[in-house]
Design goal:
- The protein is α/β, with parallel strands linked by helices.
- The protein is about 45% helix and about 15% strand.
- A five-stranded parallel β-sheet has the order 4-3-5-6-7, with helices on both faces.
- The structure holds fructose -6-phosphate (F6R).
- It is an enzyme of class 2 (transferase).
- Catalyzes the first step in hexosamine metabolism, converting fructose-6P into glucosamine-6P using glutamine as a nitrogen source.
């Protein structure tokens, strides 16, 4: 049942190339630069006339929403807000019939997300779901939606659901961008080709496993971890920290790298491992100066870098190489080593990786 892997989580991490393919298959014609999503076509006016898109979700799905915010605003030029469902539903939020709400949920049963959807509908918004579990409550409650095709996710820590959510959301953003004309036909073609290449690049990224295991053995007893990223990779830093917290019980925080100097830098000393997403494209120079700030305070730097990188290697204690990607899709690849890092650390600490304490796969109570 675990397909030869020790845990469901590891199996699911390794399934990502395949399930990402399953998720985009039939939804794009790369050569023609076409995104085919009937669930968007059927409600195209709603999307094109929307004042804004509000994304509601919890946990890892909320992180996928944050990545989507960057993609939607960058490519489709539509304003996006990303909300914790639990905050949104109790805030007396301003919702109108000109809003499109996208609810993201692996299980499709998360109580707060479901309640946020009901509230949005009551206020006349159009609600679109991105769910993994077919026929789930959220899939049924939304006006329309698209499934991620991740297959059953058994490990409590979400892995393949996250990357397939980003895949669906990127397709939606590209669909809207093509309808609005905010990206050219050739750009669209190039971006779809890039999406098509992601399974191969993730396959490549998974090869860091042994090296990540070695790094894990060095830092497994750390009391704290920091995760830093900028732009598209800020949400990846949040997700890396969440994975480590939930399965290894090590306190970890994700931060936008530039926020360090506004407080968290006080935490840095030789006991503090800092995972920095420092791939090329997107604020590379800025990230290098953030790394220097950490290094000069003796923090231990574990950097995720683009293959062949020399500049970060010269500064970091450890580098983990991943294939080069466009900035917009880099979260799909950069997440992989962070999933593996949390996995190996948790295993080395003797934690129950697939069923961490205090957590449930579906959070059906608020
Ligand atoms: C993290 C995790 C949780 C879920 C959250 C939302 O690994 O599993 O944070 O992401 O409970 O769940 P769904 O996506 O089912 O709504």
């Amino acid at each position: 049942e675990k397909g030869g892997y020790d845990h469901f989580m590891l199996k699911e991490i390794h399934e990502q190339p395949e399930v990402i393919k399953d998720t985009y298959r039939g939804r794009m014609i790369v050569n023609e630069g076409i995104v085919k999503m009937a669930s968007i076509d059927d409600h195209l006016e709603k999307f094109l006339n929307a004042n804004r898109i509000i994304i509601v979700a919890c946990g890892t799905s909320w992180h996928a929403g944050l990545v989507a915010e960057y993609i939607f605003e960058d490519l489709a030029r539509v304003p996006v807000e990303v909300e914790y469902a639990s905050e949104f539903r109790y805030r007396n939020p301003i919702i109108t019939s000109k809003d499109v709400v996208i609810a993201i949920s692996q299980s499709g049963e998360t109580a707060d997300t479901l309640a946020a959807i009901k509230l949005a509908k009551e206020n006349g918004a159009f609600v679109y779901g991105v769910c993994n579990v077919v026929g789930s409550s959220i899939a049924r409650e939304t006006n329309s939606g698209a499934y991620t095709h991740a297959g059953p996710e058994i490990g409590v820590a979400s892995t393949k659901a996250f990357t397939t959510q980003i895949t669906v959301l990127a397709l939606i953003a590209l669909k809207l961008a093509s309808e609005k004309g905010t990206v050219s036909k050739s750009e669209l073609h190039q971006k779809l080709a890039e999406l098509e290449s992601m399974p191969r690049k993730i396959e490549e990224a998974l090869k860091v496993d042994d090296h990540v295991k070695y790094i894990s053995s060095i830092y497994k007893d750390a009391a704290n971890f920091l995760y830093l990223g900028r732009g598209y990779n800020f949400p990846v830093a949040l997700e890396g920290a969440l994975k480590l917290k939930e399965i290894s019980y090590i306190h970890a925080e994700g931060y936008p790298a530039a926020e360090m100097k506004h407080g968290p830098i006080a935490l840095i000393d030789e006991q503090m491992p800092v995972v920095v997403i420092a791939t090329k494209k997107g604020h590379y120079e800025k990230i290098i100066s953030n790394i220097q700030e950490i290094k000069s305070r003796s923090g231990k730097i574990i950097a995720i870098v683009t293959e062949g990188d020399e500049d970060v290697r010269a500064l970091a204690d450890h580098v983990i190489e991943v294939p080069e990607t466009s900035e917009a899709l880099s979260p799909l690849v950069n997440t992989i080593p962070l999933q593996l890092l949390s996995y190996h650390i948790a295993v080395m600490r003797g934690c129950n990786v697939d069923q961490p304490r205090n957590l449930a796969k579906s959070v059906t109570v608020e």
